């Protein structure tokens, strides 16, 4: 099989069938870029490589749980997420060791960090939504348009707008659940970011 001529989408289809050659090809295509992303965030080459290995292991194990349109974007987001989870663990350890004087400031910083990473992750999920679904969601959440305005702009019914919004929210929530983020981050922050 000549993997080099296959698109990322074709490789993902083969990967879902358990094709190890497709997995190896994706690994070769994205290894260097992902290590660079991880290294830029950790300043530790060994840790960066461990993070990339962890992400590829997860990709193999969960290959049937994802409908990935942009493989590079998906993997980069997963890298940032592993870094975030590692940061949370380390931060939690140091927080336990600190005196109570700084407790409120630490909580505030954690909430800001949660919101920042979550927004970045959700933006990645939104970019991978089916085109109409993505446009409806962006018009609604980023553009602040009402359903009737979106329906008119996109030449679809209001019910179509509602269906696409419901689908977008379901996909976002499913992605958050798959990555364990629903457990990791407060529901108030998730609600705030999804509602825009």
Write a structural description.
The protein is an all-alpha fold and 196 residues long. It has two domains: 90 residues, Rna Polymerase Sigma Factor, Chain: A (Orthogonal Bundle); 99 residues, Winged helix-like DNA-binding domain superfamily/Winged helix DNA-binding domain (Arc Repressor Mutant, subunit A). Helices cover 79% and strands 0% of the residues. Helix 7 packs across helix 8. The longest helix has 27 residues. It starts with 7 loop residues before the first helix and ends with a helix.
Features:
about 200 residues; mainly alpha; Rna Polymerase Sigma Factor, Chain: A; Arc Repressor Mutant, subunit A; 2 domains; 10 helices
Topology:
Layout: H1 8-16, H2 20-42, H3 45-61, H4 71-97, H5 103-127, H6 131-141, H7 147-154, H8 158-178, H9 181-184, H10 187-195
Helix pairs in contact: 1-2, 2-3, 2-4, 3-4, 4-5, 5-10, 6-8, 7-8
CATH topology of the largest domain: Arc Repressor Mutant, subunit A
Q: Whole-number average pLDDT?
A: 77
Shape descriptor: globular
DSSP E strands, number: 0
Biggest sheet descriptor: none
**Structurally, how many domains make up the residues?**
2
CATH architecture of the largest domain: Orthogonal Bundle
Pick out the low-confidence regions. Answer: 99-108
CATH class of the largest domain: Mainly Alpha
Q: Indicate the structural class.
A: mainly alpha
Write down the Rg.
Answer: 19 Å
Give the amount of beta strand, in percent.
under 5%
Going by CATH, the homologous superfamily of the largest domain would be: Winged helix-like DNA-binding domain superfamily/Winged helix DNA-binding domain
Would you list the SSEs in sequence order as H and E? HHHHHHHHHH
Helical fraction equals over 70%
Span between termini:
46 Å
Number of contiguous helices: 10
